[in-house]
TrEMBL record:
GO molecular function: phosphatidylglycerophosphatase activity
GO annotation terms (biological process): lipid metabolic process
A Pfam family matched in the record: PgpA
Domain annotation YutG/PgpA: ranges: 35-165
SUPFAM superfamilies (UniProt xref): YutG-like
Protein name: Phosphatidylglycerophosphatase A
InterPro entries, sorted: PgpA-like_sf (IPR036681), Put_PGPase (IPR026038), YutG/PgpA (IPR007686)
């Protein structure tokens, strides 16, 4: 399976690498996101591999809109974890208040990159929270992942959409 690749300039490569590093520093591997992508697409493509899913995740992360959403969301999680945001925002993000939907809104920026299928994929995994999403939603560690759980789900959903679009193009 050949996957279309986009080459990055050196400054774009730096932001791409920083985005990956921040995700990793917050305890999420790209392989875990690829597992979510696999989960979303395995029933449609019997020859699908985790490696192919991982490549699509990496390609999604090369999009500037995605990088911007990831870096912004992770920074807000970190600030809330350090308890340095102003109230009432501090409490809403720290508790991952159910009516605070800006974390999902930020994720929609990622989903829009690959069309409406991303939204349905995201809605599905956001509701059932498989794999890493379940771990990120467990607040017992004291870490704040209000944005990161939605971002990881959105990256996986966008990668699943990208994969489906690429596979459809092969038919």
């Amino acid at each position: 399976m050949e996957i279309k690749r986009k080459e990055l300039s050196s400054s774009d490569m730096e932001v791409y690498q920083t985005t990956q590093e921040w995700i990793k520093k917050r305890g999420v591997s790209l392989e875990e996101i690829a597992d979510l992508t696999y989960y979303l697409q395995k029933d449609f493509y019997t020859d699908l591999t985790i490696e192919e899913c991982l490549e699509h995740v990496k390609q999604v992360l090369k999009k500037r809109e995605v990088q911007n959403a990831v870096l912004t969301g992770i920074q807000l999680d970190i600030l809330a974890e350090k308890k340095i945001l102003s109230e009432p925002l501090q409490d809403m993000i720290f508790r991952d208040e159910s009516l605070y939907g800006i974390d999902e809104v930020l994720s929609v920026a990622i989903l829009n990159v690959y069309g409406s299928i991303g939204l349905t994929n995201y809605g599905y995994i956001d509701r059932i929270k498989p794999g890493v999403l379940g771990r990120l939603n467990d607040q017992s560690s004291g870490e704040v992942h209000t944005f990161l759980d939605d971002i990881a789900g959105a990256i996986a959903a966008a990668a699943a959409s990208r994969l489906a679009h690429n596979r459809q193009g092969e038919d």
